[in-house]
From TrEMBL:
Stated name of the protein: Cytidine deaminase
CDD domains: deoxycytidylate_deaminase
Sorted UniProt keywords: Hydrolase, Metal-binding, Zinc
Keyword Hydrolase applies: yes
Metal-binding recorded as keyword: yes
């Protein structure tokens, strides 16, 4: 019997875990997940966007428009921040897989944590000031970033015991 050929590549596997983590997000408009791996391709952390621990989803707004304090923006933790905080301490030379290109705040945390590579799927905020500042910081610090071009657009997961 020959080996399976349609197994996940490492990139698809880690991005799949990032996207699956994003499914935990309660943000009604944008669910972002992140997965951090070390140089041995071991997963050392994962996270998704959401309000800080103890800050209730009932109490804080998920809106995008209105006064600053009426929106989610000052309150929400980004997937990358959560993944870094959820990880082991030393992230030297690690890689972060993330659904959406990191903002300037996350770029600073990524640089300071020692992460050396970012793999992302979407850069839908390309050209915004935050996105430009992020790229300036990452370029200056020598953190590489690459867009993942997946071989397949969907990875299906079934929790049906009969399919294992
Ligand atoms: N890289 C990112 N990681 C993230 O976790 N986020 C989060 C913050 C918000 O909860 C949501 C973006 O909201 P919106 O403006 O697309 O409705 O995604 C946003 C970015 C974008 O830079
Ligand atoms: Zn961010």
């Amino acid at each position: 019997m020959n080996k399976r050929e349609d197994y996940l590549s490492w990139d698809e596997y880690f991005m799949g875990i990032a996207v699956l983590s994003g499914q935990r997000s309660k943000d009604p408009s944008t669910q972002v997940g992140a997965c951090i791996i070390n140089e041995d391709k071991k997963i050392v952390g994962a996270g998704y966007n959401g309000f800080p621990k103890g800050c209730s989803d009932e109490e804080f707004p998920w809106g995008r428009e209105g006064g600053f304090l009426e929106t989610k923006y000052p309150f929400v933790m980004h997937a990358e921040q959560n993944a870094i905080l959820n990880s082991i301490k030393n992230l030297k030379n690690c890689t972060i897989y993330v659904g959406l290109f990191p903002c300037h705040e996350c770029a600073k945390s990524i640089i300071q944590s020692g992460i050396k590579k970012i793999v992302y799927l979407s850069d839908k905020y390309n050209g915004t000031d935050s996105n430009r500042a992020s790229k300036m910081l990452l370029d200056s610090a020598g953190v590489k970033y690459t867009k993942l071009i997946p071989r397949k657009m969907e990875i299906c997961i079934s929790l049906d015991e009969n399919l294992i």
